[in-house]
Structures are given as C-alpha cells and as structure tokens.
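Hi P.,

Sorry for the delay on this. The queue was packed all week, but I finally got your sequence through. Input first:
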Amino acid sequence: MRLKYLRKQKNLSQIQLAMALDLNQNSISRYETGAHQADYATLIKFADYFNVSLDYLLERTDDPTPPKK
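Then the structure:
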C-alpha cells in the first residue's frame, strides 16, 4: 500500500495522520509495514484524505486520479 509514500508527500507524521482521521498511530504504523490490513472503511478514509483512488492506494494502478462521482 502507498500509505507511507502519500503520508510523507504531505510531510505528515504518523500521529498527525492518525489524529486527522481519528485513528490510532499504532494502526497507521502497522498498515504502513504490512503487519495489518486496513478494513474497507479505513481504506476509503485514506483515499478520501489523500484524494486518490482505492486502486492507486492499493498499488493496482499508477494513476492516482479518484473516480468521478
């Protein structure tokens, strides 16, 4: 998952991201290392926050453009 890359692009710490999304910093760390997988609702939070598609977040495409609503 591109979570760490996206977080660093915005110059955010794990704690800052966790606070912005009402998550736990330990969870962010585990998602970034692959120790745990985020559930669907959390993936949507990440995609919305970084304004990218789920496919981009999950490395299924290199196009970050979110789908049109």
